[in-house]
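Meet today's protein:

…
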Amino acid sequence: MNIDLTHTTSSQVNAALVKARRAAGFPAVGMVLTLVIVTDEGNHYDALKAASDASREHPSRILVVIRRPGRSPRDRAQARLDAEVRLGGETGTGETVLLRLHGELAGHASSVVLPLLLPDAPVVVWWPEDSPAVPSKDLLGALAQRRITDAARTEDPAGTLARRAETYAPGDTDLAWTRITPWRSVLAAAMDQRAVGQRQTTVTGAVVEGEEHNPSTELLALWLADRLGVPVTRALSEGPGITAVRLATPEGEICLDRPDGRLALLAVPGQPDRHVALHRRTTAELIAEELRRLDPDEAYHHALCHGLANLGAEKAPAGPSDPPAAGRESRRKAPARKAAAR
């Protein structure tokens, strides 16, 4: 069911939501959170599709804020709200409201969104493309318990991560971090397997290979440096995304190699090599993972704020004849300690 509203108000949008629920036969509100997507006209379709797919796991009210300030002085001087209420069908198990803010109203999105938030439910704000310099200080971001950005969609991912570290507030997160969850899980499991029935394995160094302008590669290198307390080298590859992680140990090299973006090969000294499913996930899968936890992500905070001064250093490609250790190292002052990657 779709209800189009022009020259409307937030109260009229709320009334349309109640009308749509009653017409659909389920007047009770069964959503667990409010997801606010701040985007533009050109990118809202893909973002809304990803959010709708994620809402099948997390029923939510999705508010899509599309700012249209106008180009001419006359357009910028007006203030108008157009809305579209969607219920059922491709919108998933929740409710979807598209809010198009025209003219001066584009600068006051929080006043439009606030009356539409679900009562006593968490709020998550997601910027699929352009995000504010300080998400926690943004008027919409201040309403949320969780603020999701994506450094991979910016022109300078490394610089964006550095700014995120300077302005971090509890509740901030980034899809570049979410993308490395499977990598962190496999590497932690590999270290745990090495520790079973024998003395804990000591990691003396690490290499992370990936595309040059890939913030997930940077975050994985920083996470390893933070958790292991060893030099971590960032080496370039042709991609896609992260292609390999190599951990140097006295017993030999632990290697997780994914050259095709789908299937990885895990090699651990003293154990047979085995394949691991490590495909590149869709945006819907990433958003669904982020909505599973709404508390501050301390692991992201520690990784983000570790060694970012070295992010702009020169990085060398890992070629067939060159050792992958050529590149930039992210070092921690503490001495190498036993692996405790979680």
About this structure: Confidence is low (pLDDT under 50) at residues 310-342. Residues 2-149 form one domain. The first strand starts at residue 2 and ends at 5.
